[in-house]
Amino acid sequence: MGDVVITFEDVWYRYSKRGDWVLRGINLSIERGDFVLVIGCSGSGKTTLLRCLTGLIPHFYGGELRGKITVCGLDVSTSDIAEVTSKVAAVFQDPEAQILMLITEDELAYPLENLGLPPSVIVERVEWVAKLLGLEGIRYRRTFELSGGEKQRVVLATALVQLPEILVLDEPSTWLDPLTSKKLINEVVRIHHEHGITVVIAEHRLELVMPHSSKVIVLHNGKVLYFGDVGSALEGDYLLKANVGDPYIVRLWKYLGRIGKVPLNPDDFAKEVVKCILEKL
Ligand SMILES: Nc1ncnc2c1ncn2[C@@H]1O[C@H](COP(=O)(O)OP(=O)(O)OP(=O)(O)O)[C@@H](O)[C@H]1O
Ligand SMILES: [Mg+2]
User: Fold this and answer.
1) Which of 48, 57, 94, 175 has most ligand 1 atoms within 8 Å of its beta carbon, as the pocket-test mutant?
2) What is the value of pTM for the model shown?
């Protein structure tokens, strides 16, 4: 067993005391260096699960939390939220709400200033992250003038500049065009490999993230329907049961899985499908 960085022990959560339970008996353990894809249909609880990792639940959203969530050795319910966010950086769906500073450059630098790092390190890290995410052209722009996609890249940069132990991303492809989403995912994969950052990402465009994922969590009605490696998730009925992905593609994946070839990469997938069709002619 590797070094476990996230555990959920029989976690139940609802946003208000009288509301329905949104997370219902979640048990998980994620190891350092894992790249975890969280999938499930709309309303299944993906964003809620990610909010638990950052301490926003329960510290910001309140509600009722039962069970125990541990992140990098910290009990999320009883720890100071600042302590949790020093280990976990997150990018949620609404970029506007996450930008605090007037100028992009200051937005990138302020988390490091908060950590009290020396100015030379701050300059170096800001340069690094600006280059990494192609922000050189907007470093001195006013943040309220940026486009939605630019704002999200700034929010991601602000998360990465702290070199967190865990990076949490909530549906990055919903705020970017297909090409930019692909580039961004590739950057995240590179940073994950180079810096050993554990990644937990909710994404409905399975083909973008699945080839890079070491584990997948399939959520359905607030429960974990499946947690494990990607190949077995595709071979089982989990995706169909959870209404995730295009049902035709999911069926083809399953069929290909049955004959021992689960192509995770879209190009290999297309090749296998063509091969199967040719063999049937
Ligand atoms: N701030 C909130 N207050 C009350 N209920 C909420 C809040 N946020 C989410 N919920 C409810 O919790 C349930 C799970 O929502 P969540 O946002 O976690 O789902 P999701 O899987 O991320 O969906 P999507 O794919 O649409 O983003 C839904 O029924 C939703 O209405
Ligand atoms: Mg969501």
Assistant:
1) 48
2) 0.90
The residue whose CA is least distant from atom 12 of ligand 1 is 22
Statement: residue 260 has pLDDT above 70? no
Show Cβ contacts of residue 90 under 8 Å, excluding neighbours closer than 6 positions: 50, 53, 54, 159, 167, 168, 169, 170
H-only helix segments in 115-177: 119-132, 148-160
Distance between start and end Cα atoms, the chain: 47
Give the span between the Cα atoms of 173 and 154, in whole angstroms: 15
Q: How far is the CA of 46 from the centre of ligand 1 (A)?
A: 8
* φ, ψ dihedrals at 75, nearest 5°: -80, 115
How far is ligand 1, taken at its centre, from the CA of residue 22, in Å?
8
Q: If you ran DSSP here, which 8-state letter would residue 115 be given?
A: T
CB of 48 closer than 6 angstroms to any ligand 1 atom: yes
Out of 111-120, 217-226, 232-241, least confident range: 232-241
Q: Which of 18, 20, 22 to mutate to test the pocket of ligand 1 (most atoms within 8 A of CB)?
A: 22
Confirm or reject: Cβ of 162 under 6 Å from ligand 1: no
pLDDT at 88 over 60: yes
pLDDT tens track for 179-230: 878 888 888 898 899 888 999 999 988 888 988 999 999 999 999 999 999 8
Q: How many A from CA of 102 to the centre of ligand 2? A: 27
